[in-house]
């Protein structure tokens, strides 16, 4: 079972909250366009560092990510999961037939590394094929994982600002600032399995978020 896990991680159809599988049946008749957005609603800081979306897109959403083999795999797994057939097989086959397995969605985002006030749109998602209106929010589960590198980068930014204040107070310069906040991201996740959820593993992704703000 463990040896098959990488295959599951490479099947975009299975990388979602399971309740999304039946959402295509719940849209009003005639729906053709679904437009969604992601924002940081609030928190301990008034600004956030937007970071990590490019990794998610290139890891899971770019290229021919849907195949007939993956559709068959998902159909079998989801029927076992739900105990009945709720899978949108026709919808996924349509993507293979009409888009060669590429996802017909458009994603727009602020530049990676931008510092943005909370309660602002950070990225948007919309379907580009009216027959795939259901796809916009199907991929939400993957996209919102951007919270993790964003949180690491945002926390690191604020920690670095605190360190900078005390460096100026005690040393009068910021020459050593990039080396004053060190990375222990691997030990910061809950398990080795979690750290290998993505390739590169989660601790590396967190460290990318950290090194966006420092060198140590």
From TrEMBL:
Keywords (A to Z) from UniProt: Glycosyltransferase, Transferase
Keyword Membrane attributed: no
GO biological process terms held by the UniProt record: NAD+ biosynthetic process
GO molecular function: nicotinamide phosphoribosyltransferase activity
Domain of life from the UniProt record: Eukaryota
Pfam families recorded: NAMPT_N
PANTHER family in alphabetical order: NICOTINAMIDE PHOSPHORIBOSYLTRANSFERASE (PTHR43816:SF1)
Name under which the protein is recorded: Nicotinamide phosphoribosyltransferase
Native source species: Fasciola gigantica (Giant liver fluke)
Lineage: Eukaryota, Metazoa, Spiralia, Lophotrochozoa, Platyhelminthes
């Amino acid at each position: 079972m463990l040896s098959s896990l990488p295959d599951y991680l490479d099947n975009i159809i299975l990388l979602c909250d399971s309740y999304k599988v039946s959402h295509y049946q719940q849209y009003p008749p005639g729906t053709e366009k679904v437009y969604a957005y992601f924002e940081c609603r609030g928190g301990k800081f008034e600004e956030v560092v937007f970071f990590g979306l490019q990794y998610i897109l290139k890891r899971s959403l770019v290229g021919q990510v849907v195949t007939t083999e993956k559709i068959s795999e998902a159909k079998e797994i989801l029927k076992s999961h739900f105990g009945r057939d709720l899978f949108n097989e026709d919808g996924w086959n349509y993507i293979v037939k009409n888009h060669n397995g590429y996802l017909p969605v458009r994603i727009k985002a602020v530049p990676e590394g931008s510092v943005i006030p909370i309660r602002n749109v950070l990225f948007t998602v919309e379907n580009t094929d009216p027959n795939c209106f259901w796809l916009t929010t199907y991929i939400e589960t993957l996209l919102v994982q951007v919270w993790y590198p964003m949180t690491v980068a945002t926390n690191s930014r604020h920690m670095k600002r605190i360190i900078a204040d005390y460096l100026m107070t005690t040393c009068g310069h910021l020459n050593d600032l990039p080396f004053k906040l060190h990375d222990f991201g691997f030990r910061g996740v809950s398990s080795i399995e979690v750290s290998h959820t993505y390739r590169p593993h989660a601790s590396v992704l967190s460290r990318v978020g950290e090194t966006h703000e420092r060198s140590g």
